[in-house]
């Protein structure tokens, strides 16, 4: 019973919320310093997300006494990435629509997402890249967090 006292959804939701806030803060820093058009700095979004996915899995493992099942770790990392990605996508759309962010012009000029970007397509692209990326990251990170006595089934 003690192993199931911590919820995957609550842990993933909390760290996803914090991850979303960190992504938004990083985007605002890039926008304020006029560095949003530097492609290499966008790699920071990935680094921030990986850090928070690791923190969520680590927190779940610690709260459950060092025992986290493989799929539970992937699930908490996935919930973290879903919450953070949706938060960041909504922020980006609101930022473009109401605060005059020029990120849509930057993306159009780089031709990474095509010339005819709309707010809906920006939202969908962010979520379609962020969510599967977070799930894949959770899968990779769980190689580190799995139990030391993990063995293949016979």
UniProtKB/TrEMBL annotation:
It comes from the Bacteria. Keywords: Membrane, Transmembrane, Transmembrane helix. The chain crosses the membrane at residues 12-34, 40-58, 70-99, 119-145. This is DUF4199 domain-containing protein. The lineage of its organism: Bacteria, Pseudomonadati, Bacteroidota, Cytophagia, Cytophagales.
